[in-house]
């Protein structure tokens, strides 16, 4: 029986990619990252920019992104308090991936069927409305 340590083992790329995907998987994370790739946002601006997201969900997704080192949260000692969110350098390295996705969408987006947005507050309101005869 050979004595091998984990460091000597070859990395399992499937597992490594699963870890990478988990950083950006979440109901709203990619949309948040897309916006923050454009500029620095305040909490209220993000909430307005992302239709259908609740305050609770935005807070949860931002906390996860911050804990993973993909965004920074800066609190300014002002009255009323001001909080800004910005991408970290680590997250900015995803820029080429976002550009590639944008290019792919420009080429193939028209061929993707349009689906109603089943997420968030507006979707819940649609579900609760009685059907018209």
Summarize the structure in words.
The chain has a domain at 27-99: Arc Repressor Mutant, subunit A (Orthogonal Bundle). It has a three-stranded antiparallel β-sheet. It starts with 12 loop residues before the first helix and ends in a 5-residue tail after the last helix. The chain has helices at 13-24, 29-38, 43-49, 55-67, 89-92, 95-108, 120-128; strands at residues 41-42, 71-76, 82-87. 52% of the residues lie in helices and 11% in strands. It has 133 residues and is mainly alpha-helical. It is built from seven helices and three strands; from the N terminus they run ααβααββααα.
Quick overview of this protein structure:
With 133 residues, the chain is mainly alpha-helical. It is built from seven helices and three strands. A three-stranded antiparallel sheet has the order 1-3-2.
Characteristics:
11% strand; 3 strands; Arc Repressor Mutant, subunit A; 133 residues
Poorly predicted ranges (pLDDT <50, ≥5 residues)?
Answer: 128-133
Number of strands: 3
State the CATH superfamily name of one domain.
Winged helix-like DNA-binding domain superfamily/Winged helix DNA-binding domain
The CATH class of one domain, by name, is Mainly Alpha
Tally of alpha and pi helices: 7
Overall 3D geometry? globular
């Amino acid at each position: 029986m050979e004595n091998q340590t984990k460091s000597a083992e070859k990395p399992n790329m499937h597992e490594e990619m699963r870890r990478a995907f988990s950083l950006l998987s979440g109901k709203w994370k990619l949309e948040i990252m897309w916006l923050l790739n454009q500029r620095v946002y305040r909490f209220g601006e993000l909430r307005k920019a992302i239709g259908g997201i609740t305050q609770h969900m935005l807070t949860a997704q931002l906390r996860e992104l911050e804990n993973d080192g993909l965004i920074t949260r800066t609190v300014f000692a002002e009255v009323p308090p001001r909080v800004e969110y910005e991408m970290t350098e680590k997250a900015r390295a995803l820029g080429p991936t976002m550009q590639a996705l944008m290019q792919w969408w420009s080429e193939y987006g028209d061929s993707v069927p349009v689906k109603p947005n089943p997420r968030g507050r507006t979707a819940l309101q649609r579900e609760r409305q009685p059907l018209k005869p």
